[in-house]
Write a structure and sequence with these properties.
alpha/beta, 25% strand, 336 residues
Amino acid sequence: MRAVGYKRSLPIDQIEALIDLEIDKPAPQKRDLLVQVKAVSVNPVDTKVRKRADPPGGEARILGFDATGEVAAVGPDVTLFKAGDEVWYAGSIIRPGTNSEFHLVDERIVGHKPKSLDFAAAAALPLTSITAWEMLFDRFAIAQGGAEGKSLLIVGGAGGVGSIAIQLARMLTRLTVIATASRPETRDWCKKLGAHHVVDHSKPMGEQLKGIGHRFVDYIFGVTESGQHFDTICDAIAPQGRFGLIDDPKSLDVAKLKGKSASLHWEAMFTRSTFQTADMDAQHRLLNEVAAMVDKGTIRTTVAENFGKITAANLRRAHAQVESGTTRGKIVLEGF
């Protein structure tokens, strides 16, 4: 079957940074679904893994996490799906990725695809939805329908995670949602997704927050450049507030949070699948909930661009765009 992967960790402008491959079609075991992949999206984690290290022994590593497709076969212990079901999911970082015609995934981290979206539009949402949902409702422990009078600042509101976090916070809580964006088109994007306020993270944010009546913010979600903005975050966070992040700053002086008794929370959406946690099927349930919200029209896809077929050339272009740090929403690719 066709796939796209890499054998050497190279800059994305090198033609061998991602290459077209022919590999064997896998067979499902235990709780695996064998999914015929219809569409994928590209996330920052794809580029980070590619740049991290060479695969062992000259082997090829297949990247890709977000996927939509149709169940082609099921393992003997599967109970949640059957052949022919249309699904969406974000995969596991410890297994081969979704940039292949057929892909194995544990059913406990898979949801039923929204009926109202085509495969490409749906592929933009799984990884970012899981990440944003787990930060808001697991790490921050915000009650759905609650948080009246509280505020949330999303640092990096126009990217994939920020785009869905804005929508989930608006639809499922009573938070005042403040997003950051630095360009007119990204500011407009955040407002259209439902942010009450948008501030410019390329300028001092403290004065801007004061200007909209939010000297302190109860919850701060660091999507990008958390190290660069950490001093501002520590100044803006409310006493006993919560700061959560998903990016990889080189260092953080967490002692700066002590005076306000503020807490620090990491979110890594692969934790449940990597460690096979007892609540691993929480991702199955939340993806089904997000799908229902999409079908009701309360959540919209965050796809911004479709780069065409799932090929090495198109994926190199998508990786380059993600690495530029200027992506609005999500990039998707569709078909082989």
